[in-house]
């Protein structure tokens, strides 16, 4: 069973941990069901298409600078800026799939990540070829939470065969 958000209920209606949904995948990453493979293909194709369209938009901007005749130095600065920002955005996005990013650092890099949007789209594309982007991180957190929950439940209930009987 699942609720209206597509999040599976915990077993037996317990109060155990629930998997965190991923963008575009919901909680299909848990058991790789519910069209998981099709969603991965769509996410990869969509991010690659968006990156290609973005490169076309950057090409139009480059042509605009060339037509305006701003000079080679400004054109070179623009190309280097987009290349560096895209590389940094790729790395930041790729790292965010394996560990939680620091919110303060992410806020300070917001402008850089906006300029380097092509790098973020490419990181999403390449990660979609392997898994749902962020699946590894969420699976580790979910498995850890489930193990801790099972330990707590076992500790509370204990092993009935080891309990002393009162006479």
Please describe the topology of this protein:
Blueprint: H1 36-68, H2 72-96, H3 103-108, H4 110-115, H5 117-130, H6 135-157
Helix pairs in contact: 1-5, 2-5
What does this structure look like?
This protein is mostly helical and 167 residues long. Helix content is 64%, strand content 0%. The protein has six helices and no strands. It has helices at 36-68, 72-96, 103-108, 110-115, 117-130, 135-157. Helix 2 (72-96) packs parallel to helix 5.
Concise summary:
With 167 residues, the chain is mainly α. It contains six helices and no strands.
| Mean pLDDT value | 85
Q: Figure out the total of helices.
A: 6
What is the CA-based Rg, rounded? 23 Å
Q: Using DSSP, what is the number of strands?
A: 0
Strand and helix order:
HHHHHH
Q: Could you list some keywords that capture this structure?
A:
6 helices, disordered N terminus, 64% helix, 167 residues, mainly alpha
């Amino acid at each position: 069973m699942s609720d209206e958000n597509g999040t599976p209920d915990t077993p037996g209606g317990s109060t155990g941990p629930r998997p965190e949904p991923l963008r575009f995948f919901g909680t299909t990453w848990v058991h790789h069901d519910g069209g998981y493979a099709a969603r991965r293909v769509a996410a990869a194709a969509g991010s690659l298409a968006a990156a290609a369209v973005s490169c076309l938009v950057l090409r139009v901007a480059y042509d605009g600078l060339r037509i305006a005749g701003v000079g080679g130095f400004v054109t070179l600065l623009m190309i280097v800026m987009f290349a560096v920002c895209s590389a940094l955005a790729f790395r930041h996005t790729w790292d965010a799939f394996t560990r939680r990013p620091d919110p303060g650092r992410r806020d300070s890099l917001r402008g850089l990540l906006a300029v380097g949007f092509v790098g973020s789209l490419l990181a999403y594309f390449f990660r979609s070829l392997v898994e749902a982007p962020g699946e590894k991180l969420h699976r580790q957190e979910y498995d850890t939470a489930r193990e801790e929950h099972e330990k707590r439940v076992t500790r509370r209930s204990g092993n009935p065969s080891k309990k002393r009987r009162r006479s």
